[in-house]
Write a structure and sequence with these properties.
Layout: E1 2-8, E2 13-18, E3 20-23, E4 29-34, E5 40-46, E6 51-59, E7 65-69, E8 76-78
Antiparallel strand pairs: 1-2, 1-6, 3-4, 3-8, 4-5, 6-7
């Protein structure tokens, strides 16, 4: 399980626990969990125009945990 922070266009941040986050080809941000049988299910989907940035909580290189920014465009998955 990972922790993701999404910066929303209306000025709020939201923190979500999920197994993975990704940006689809259409720009949507999706958050997924995997059930005990290994099947992924979407927990939440955000339209492209509602999210301005995505971060994953993780260790910095040789340092403490911090919010690591994810790519602002293109298709990607983060676990």
């Amino acid at each position: 399980m990972a922790v993701f922070m999404l910066r929303l266009a209306h000025g709020e941040d939201t923190v979500v626990e999920a197994d993975a986050a990704g940006r689809t080809a259409t720009g949507e941000i999706v958050l997924e969990r995997t059930d005990r049988h290994g099947r992924s299910e979407r927990v939440r989907t955000y339209r492209a125009d509602t999210v301005t940035a995505v971060y994953r909580r993780g260790p910095a290189e040789g340092g403490p945990y911090r919010w690591i920014p994810q790519p602002p465009d293109g298709t990607w998955w983060c676990y």
